[in-house]
């Protein structure tokens, strides 16, 4: 019998708040899995508990009451509710592409699950979970190729597709846009499910029009209303087809929601991201007066007027004046909403395309008419074209056509 005593396992038990950061390696934003909204929130709560500088995962000891308070969970049996949610996450399939571990010759597609196990101790008010050990390179000691966001933004959303789409867009926020096929988008937000063998087991909202109305548009609306992102999109169609093949998302920081969660200082970041609360150039009194005038003109609320300062700091005063001119160019039923939308999604001046008049194909002139005319009338001034000849001397033109026709027939 060995006298060696195993070292105590690391336990994370500090409960996160809405200000806590969720750190993820980029690949996880594009992983394939399907979780219900409550399951997604519990998973992100657990990820936020982990110290990103820790040497190992350890266990995460979730306080039932703290989780319920942060997420607004109301249930008769909070403990059982949380336990069942954790077990459901453990049983869900997680597929991650390009997993490469020490000793592997080439990357593999990993089929696994988020949680290695779930412990329950009846009556103590806690549920303990352990994240699968192979996920460590994606969640701790990540030095590059990662994204982060405040837990509160994700927990504030109610739609499962909104939470997943938000994570995907945060991953690409530094690029300010992302183009993705409809097929890939469905996989990455969970509308298409796969099993442990990678086979499709379920496809929700198969028709694009249903996917758009039930998943895509509601998710974007919730992201714009509740998070630090302002998102718009453009449908991409195959050339010569009306079928939508992909989506291009435009991703900007939502300056109207900067106060939704109080700003915190972010550590140094490897990507060129836009963070909340970033200090911008000072706004002088003249610019403030311009902002005040714009707020009055468009009927902005105090919150919207404050947001204008953020747009000036980020994009410059000329940007605001350009968008104001675009909004003024057409009648608006809601000027404030139109102006804010123009700022959020970078409206461009409309380009007028004039309808081209059909060009008349120039008819070829009959050959030899000038020679025929010069032979008959050597001293005459020749018309510039056969059309002019036929207009001025229609009888002679007919004679030429008759002679040339006979000549062609003879040849």
Poorly predicted spans = 1-7, 262-281
- Which value, in Å, is the CA radius of gyration? 34 Å
- How many beta strands in the DSSP annotation? 13
What strand order characterises the main sheet?
Answer: 1-3-7-6
Q: Please give the share of residues in helix.
A: 40-55%
Report the mean per-residue pLDDT as an integer.
83
Strand-and-helix sequence, N→C? EEHHEHHEEEEHEHHEHEEHEEHHHHHHH
Strand-pairing-aware structural class: alpha+beta
Report the major sheet.
4 strands, mixed
Q: Based on the coordinates given, report the CATH architecture of the largest domain.
A: Orthogonal Bundle
Share of β-strand residues: 15-25%
Task: List the total number of helices.
Answer: 16
Kindly, what is the distance between the CA atoms of the first and last residues, rounded to a whole number of angstroms? 118 Å
Name of the CATH first level of the largest domain: Mainly Alpha
Shape: elongated
What count of domains describes the coordinates? 4
Q: According to CATH, what is the topology of the largest domain?
A: Arc Repressor Mutant, subunit A
Provide an overview of this structure.
By secondary structure, the protein is of the alpha+beta class. The chain folds into four domains: 8-156, Winged helix-like DNA-binding domain superfamily/Winged helix DNA-binding domain (Arc Repressor Mutant, subunit A, Orthogonal Bundle), CATH 1.10.10.10; 158-262, Winged helix-like DNA-binding domain superfamily/Winged helix DNA-binding domain (Arc Repressor Mutant, subunit A); 285-345, no CATH class; 369-410, no CATH class. The protein is 41% helix and 17% strand. It is built from 16 helices and 13 strands. The chain has helices spanning 26-29, 37-49, 64-71, 78-91, 136-139, 151-155, 160-171, 182-189, 208-226, 285-298, 302-315, 317-328, 335-345, 369-376, 386-392, 394-410; strands at 11-12, 21-25, 59-63, 94-99, 108-112, 115-120, 126-131, 146-150, 177-181, 192-194, 200-203, 229-237, 244-253. The chain has a four-stranded mixed β-sheet with strand order 1-3-7-6. The chain has a three-stranded antiparallel β-sheet with strand order 9-13-12. The radius of gyration is 34 Å and the shape is elongated. It starts with 10 loop residues before the first strand and ends with a helix.
């Amino acid at each position: 019998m060995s006298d060696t005593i195993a070292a105590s396992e690391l336990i994370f038990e500090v409960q996160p708040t809405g200000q806590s950061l969720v750190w993820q390696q980029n690949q996880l934003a594009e992983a394939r899995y399907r979780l219900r909204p409550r399951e997604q929130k519990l998973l992100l709560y657990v990820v936020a508990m982990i110290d990103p500088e820790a040497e190992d995962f350890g266990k995460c000891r979730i306080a039932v009451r703290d989780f319920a308070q942060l997420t607004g969970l109301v249930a008769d049996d909070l403990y059982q509710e949380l336990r069942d949610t954790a077990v459901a996450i453990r049983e869900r399939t997680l597929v991650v592409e390009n997993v490469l571990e020490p000793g592997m010759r080439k990357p593999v597609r990993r089929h696994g699950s988020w949680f290695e196990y779930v412990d329950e101790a009846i009556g103590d008010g806690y549920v303990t979970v352990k994240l699968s050990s192979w996920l460590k390179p994606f969640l701790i000691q990540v030095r590059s190729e990662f994204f982060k966001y405040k837990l509160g933004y994700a927990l504030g959303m109610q739609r499962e597709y909104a939470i997943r789409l938000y994570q995907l867009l945060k991953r690409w926020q530094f690029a300010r846009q992302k183009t993705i096929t409809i097929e890939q988008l469905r996989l990455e937000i969970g509308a298409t499910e796969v099993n442990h063998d990678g086979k499709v087991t379920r496809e929700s909202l198969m028709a694009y029009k249903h996917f758009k109305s039930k998943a895509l548009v509601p998710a974007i609306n919730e992201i714009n209303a509740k998070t630090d992102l302002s998102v718009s999109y453009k449908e991409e169609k195959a050339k010569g087809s009306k079928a939508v093949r992909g989506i291009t998302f435009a991703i900007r920081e939502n300056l109207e929601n900067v106060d939704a969660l109080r700003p915190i200082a972010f550590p140094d970041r490897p990507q060129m991201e836009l963070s909340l609360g970033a200090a911008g150039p000072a706004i002088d009194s003249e610019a403030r007066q311009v902002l005040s005038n714009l707020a009055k003109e468009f009927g902005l609320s105090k919150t919207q007027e404050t947001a204008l300062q953020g747009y000036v700091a980020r994009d410059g005063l000329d940007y605001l004046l350009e968008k104001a001119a675009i909004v003024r160019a057409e009648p608006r039923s809601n000027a404030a909403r139109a102006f804010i939308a123009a700022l959020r999604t970078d409206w461009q001046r409309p380009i007028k395309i004039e309808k081209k008049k059909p060009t008349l194909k120039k008819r070829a002139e009959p050959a030899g008419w000038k020679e025929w005319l010069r032979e008959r009338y050597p001293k005459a001034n020749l018309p510039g074209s056969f059309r002019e000849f036929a207009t001025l001397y229609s009888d002679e033109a007919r004679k030429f056509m008759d002679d040339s026709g006979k000549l062609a027939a003879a040849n």
